## 1
Amino acid sequence: MLIWINGAFGAGKTQTAFELERRLSNAHVADPELLGFALHRMQPPATRRDFQDLPQWRSAVVDTLQQAEAAHSGPVLVPMTIVDDDYFDEIIGGLRSRGVDLRHYALIASPQALRGRLRNRVALVPGGLRRETWALEQLSRCVAALAQARYATHIDTEHLSTNDVVEQIAADAGLTFTAPRLAPWQFQLRRLHVGLRHIR
């Protein structure tokens, strides 16, 4: 099974994916951003743009995730924002057309809530860290796109904890946890660790 966790920037995709991985037996997080970063490194800086616009990224995501899902006995978890209708159909539709058991979840929240979360995030850039201005600029586009029925199943995260979101996804996908919730202090430490590992 492949579980695609979609959502605007700040919706909690990465934290949700890694908490699912911790609580499920033999789950694996597969991040398509890594393919995008690799393609960027192969291009001169002046030619780099959104890697989702690269046909080779989209085809590689489909090929790689199909192989990962076929080779892995547990759920493959994919935290990735994708809000272009054509790209969504190409990737999500492409995986399903190849027989992949794909469950799609869009984590949604109001623009105000997402802005509040993003104000506490930073990105790694040459010379140090900076605020997530690019992600903030994408909020309106992402929120509007993800509201469409094609991006179901929707999970409104506005007033839910990460644990609540994780448990909703697992229940909907028919997955059984093998690990319990962490104590609040343990969860916050793990959340910080995951966040630091994924500063972009």
## 2
Amino acid sequence: MYSALAGSVKPPTRDGICSPVSVDHYENFPVASWLCPPQLRPAVVALYHFARTADDIADEGDANATTRRQLLADYRADLARVYAGQPPSERWRERVFAAVAQERHRLDPALLTLLVEAFEQDLEPPRYQDRAHLLDYCRRSANPVGRQLLALYGQTDPDSLAQSDAICSALQLINFWQDFSRDGPRGRLYVPQSDLDAHGVSADDILACRDSPAARALTQALCQWARALMQQGAPLALRLPGRAGWELRLVVQGGLAILAKIEAMHFASLLRRPRLTAWDAPALLWRALRMRA
């Protein structure tokens, strides 16, 4: 059910843990897997391709920031056209907006717009001052996905929304701590300044992926934060009925498994990127089966 689509933790194409729809990038969590009810798959796939394409605009290729910003503005304009009942431009019509148009009665344009805003922010990411500042980014980059999926499942009570936000923010944070070696060369720093200061680590150390005992202690603290958020939201997986609950159990356990892999590396994710493989699937399934309140 939950994938923090496009920019957070992501679903597999080659060696993943579930059977996803065909996608173009290696990712760690399922999109529209066999656990997703068939009647919801078109909306989930439309959501995925909308977010994935926006992420590619922000990240892929050699375009400069000005060009990317204009493309994202065009993308947002196409979204507005679709919801105004007008045809989008040709550029993304077949891959993205034809499906969005078909599912627009089930997809919230405000949540889709928040995702695009997050990708726009990634073009010139700020230095995050504290954890609250970074969680505000997660509010746009990850939480809209969970809220949209909850709406598809008809679960929009305040407790469910809060727990969904906790899970999605945790997934986004886990992706950050998993991707130090990718984000550093791109000049992207998602570690709050308050955490850097508390551990005596500089922003340049993280961007250059310089490993040290202090950097590992920092990574350990960041992983503990993400784990606490995941545990805060995890009861939602036990409360959601049927397939939705089982899919969310797998996503929760997948996020926790990445944290466990970082811990097994002695928190050296500045040096290499941990990842899930098909060999992890039995353990994830077992842990999902054994989840308790």
## 3
Amino acid sequence: MKTTPHQTSSHGHLVIIGGGEDRKHDKAILARFVELAGGPDARIVVITAASTIADDMWEIYDQAFGDLGVKQRFHLPLVSRQDANDEAKVRMVAEADGIFMTGGDQKRLLAIIGGTSLDAEMHTALKVRGACIGGTSAGASAMSGHMLAQGKTDLLPQKGAVSLGAGLGFLHRVVIDQHFSERQRLARLLSVVAHNPYLQGIGIDEDTALIIERGRGIEVVGEGSVTVVDGRTMDTNIADIRDHATPELIDVRLHLLPAGSRWYLPTDAEPGNRPMSPALREFLETVTKRNPIS
């Protein structure tokens, strides 16, 4: 279906949550999502396609968004690709100010919506209308062009320990992992970067969100931190070792951005913004890049 969404002044936001966000108390992350979507008057659609218990997931977020004063909140249940190409369901996304993807299995989520009309409409919502797209746990992992599909969580990185799949592509040249500190997933993210040094790895803790404003900058909200693993300058022997062996990884960069971190590109910096290292600036330029609609 074709739509003619109106252009807005918003750059569009991604709210990428590491899972386990507070849904019962102050709901700081969900409240920020609502704010970026336009406040209590916003139309918010909840996509539960990643979960096999969609109704239970909807009940949780219906209650949470209701507690935050959102009156126009809608469940978008999707169990097949036919659903994701249904004109009425696509129209719900076309009319939404905020689109939220719940947790579950990111492979299931992509199998249902990847490459469909609903997928295309989500890109239009973000890039043309300036909508806010949020995702938690599996919904977070699915946001990048390269998606972490599966992998072990041993204490050391290993050759062949992880595999990637195609994600939704709201941002590129990164891969996202969630429940990061709680499930000790640094080794898993290092394994990804060792195999794919052109990707920067982003690990997001539970009850923590990386918020990206397209073309401008980032902020971290919640209770934990965001870890960035950058292997673009590293030396590694991963091509020469056997499967399941631990590679040498020399000169890997790691950035830790705790809750409260806010960084903006220099052209749009707020007054008093701190000097930015070249490595951090490259990260911001990567994640905030305004990619064309695909």
## 4
Amino acid sequence: MAEAKQMVDALVRDRQGSTIAATAALGGVALIVGLALKALPGRAPASDATPSAGHASPAAAPRTPFDHSAVDEDEARMMLRAMVAATMADGLMDAAERERLYGALAAAKIGAAGRAWLDKELAEPVDVDELAAGVSTPEQAARIYAAARLAIEPDTLQERQFLKMLADALDVPAEAVARFDQELAG
């Protein structure tokens, strides 16, 4: 599925009852990256192509908190899987919620393959251990957690337990979890 980033963007924009949806105009993936960087202060964005000292390219633009160029389709798919798992943490997905998700996908012009993928994930959400197994850096862990946290308003015990288990499995520091909650409150 090559539409993972588009799907993340659509689902973030569709988040109801929040000012987050309004700020997602820059893109859901970029918003998640920015939230993760704010939650992990003092960490520079990881770059696979960091020039060695004295060999910096003058043409290289500085990275911003919302620079999501390092997020590939595989990581966007992990974000989506985390979002779906968080949504399904309480075991409830009523018809209105399902139609809202499908409406967001339709608005983003996600085709039948994307909808079929979402149906499969809703039927069998990934568990926290499987999500954690695909994570290789603290920054990536923060982005995956941010996606899951952004997907829900943790108003049930099951949702809060899911987020705690996910944070533990990803080794997201308690301070970062508190920052996510503070940013996404209201």
